[in-house]
Amino acid sequence: MTATAHFTGAAEPYSGGDPYADYRTADFPFTHLVDLADRRLGAGVIAANDEFFAERENLLKPGPAEFDPEHFGHKGKIMDGWETRRRRGVSAAQPHPSDEDHDWALVRLGAPGVVRGIVVDTAHFRGNHPQAVSVEAASVPGSPSPEELLAPDVEWTTLVPRTAVGGHAANGFVVDADRRFTHLRVNQHPDGGIARLRVHGEVAPDPAWLAALTTFDLAALENGGQVEDASDRFYSPATNTIQPGRSRKMDDGWETRRRRDQGNDWIRYRLAEQAEIRAVEIDTACLKGNSAGWASLSVRDGTSGDWAEVLPRTRLQPDTNHRFVLPENVRATHVRIDIFPDGGISRLRLFGSLTREGAARLAARHQELGG
After folding, report:
1. How far is it, in rounded angstroms, from Cα 231 to Cα 247?
2. Which residues are bridge partners to 281 per DSSP?
3. Which of 36, 111, 166, 327 is the most buried (most CB within 10 A)?
4. Is the dihedral of CA 322, 325, 326, 330 positive or negative?
5. CA end-to-end span of the chain, whole Å?
6. Cα 14 to chain center, whole Å?
7. How distant is the alpha carbon of residue 211 from its chain centre?
8. Which tens digit of pLDDT belongs to each residue from 215-271?
9. Cβ contacts of 310 within 8 Å, gap of 6 or more
10. Coil, helix or strand for 60?
């Protein structure tokens, strides 16, 4: 584990104006990867030892934390994050908490996977942030209860050792643990508040589950699909196109800036593994005056070679889900959608089944990761 940008100490008290004006952050090398703790994937904070001032569920809320200097409740200042009460020692002679005292929260990842980086965001916690944090991970099958996760026989792997962090800052950590995890234990030492938790990595799906489904969405994040690259991410990330469910608002899809040249925009995907694609959905939900005008789909089997067009340039309608049954099954590991000339789509679904070779590679990788 290596900290890519290290912030320590409390920020200055809020003095009015933009609450993010003095926010400390940095560019981290892993934030292009999917957030495994995204609630849209099914993540949740299933337990915490203390949430006196602010609820644990706030940790995984989408978007940046908000701050209202006048928002108080009967327990005190209401913060958009997880905040525990102040810890105390055992007596007047020992008023300070011991070095081992800490608060914790258990997080179920929305999609099990390999963690590549973690952001512990203390936005707006200026003098009430934890002195240090640590993060552990475990791989537990099924849907374990908090009591089962806290049982002594559960093996926890340290992803972030106890490290001093800064208040009102995005504290980022690169993680080097090539294993598949399902749950995290986030510790703050000795107490305080954390606004948001982001857990970036690669989804590692369960091969047995995909085999049972037979036909599934080969590009979906939850099934191990990934966005490898995109021509434009100006208004929203291309990864939105393979999130679960239909888009409910415009920025929940992928939208590019307006082109003033003769080119076009595109996204390149890597499927869960080599597969046979049978049907395609291209959804422009909530994109009404800014949807793509046309789209085409091309595939490639392997990391190199020519792209083969399987869906010719086709007219798209705004705010519409378009369905296409391919004339024959198409074998692929990578897919590219081109939109013309610009605009956006909200979702891309590629339905099919893994090939025998793809299933075997996925099972081998699952075993390598300790699944």
Report:
1. 21
2. 323, 349
3. 36
4. positive
5. 22
6. 30
7. 24
8. 999 999 999 999 999 999 989 999 999 999 999 999 899 999 999 999 999 999 999
9. 277, 297, 298, 299, 326, 330
10. helix
Task: Give phi and psi for 181, each to the nearest 5.
Answer: -125, 155
Q: Pick left, alpha or beta for residue 312 (phi over 0 → left; psi -120 to 50 → alpha; otherwise beta).
A: beta
Q: In which residue are the tokens 């067009």 written? A: 309
* 279-319 confidence digits (pLDDT tens): 999 999 999 999 999 999 999 999 888 999 999 999 999 99
Tens of pLDDT, residues 101-130: 999 999 999 999 999 999 999 999 999 999
Q: Considering the entire predicted model, what is its pTM?
A: 0.92
DSSP-assigned letter for residue 358: H
- Percentage above 90 pLDDT, the chain: 95
Over residues 62-107, the pLDDT tens digits come to 999 999 999 999 998 999 999 999 999 999 999 999 999 999 999 9
Q: Are 319 and 282 in contact (CB under 8 A)?
A: no
Partner residues linked to 280 by β-bridges:
324, 350
**Are the CB atoms for 210 and 362 separated by under 8 Å?**
yes
Widest distance between CA atoms in the chain: 80
Would you state the structure tokens that stand for residue 126, as one six-digit string? 């200026």
Give the pLDDT confidence score for residue 1 in this predicted structure: 46
User: Does residue 69 contact residue 78 with C-beta atoms inside 8 Å?
Assistant: no
Contact 223, 243 (CB under 8 A): no
Q: Do residues 336 and 265 touch, judged by C-beta distance below 8 A?
A: no
Instruction: Please give the torsion angle defined by the CA atoms of residues 258, 260, 263 and 267, in that order, rounded to the nearest 10 degrees.
Output: -20
